[in-house]
Amino acid sequence: MKDEKAKPRGRRAKDADRRMGRRTLLIGGAAAAVGTAVLARDELRRLWWRMPGMEKPRVDGAVDFRGATWVAASAANWRRADRPDDYGIDRVIIHVTQGSFASAVRVFQDPGHGAAAHYIVRKDGHITQMIRELDVAFHAGNREFNERSVGIEHAGFVDRPEDFTDAMYAASARLTARICERYGIPVDREHIIGHVEIPGTDHTDPGPHWDWDRYLRLVREAAEASTSRGVAEAATSTA
Question: In this protein, which residues make up the domain named N-acetylmuramoyl-L-alanine amidase (predicted)?
Answer without folding.
Answer: 78-207
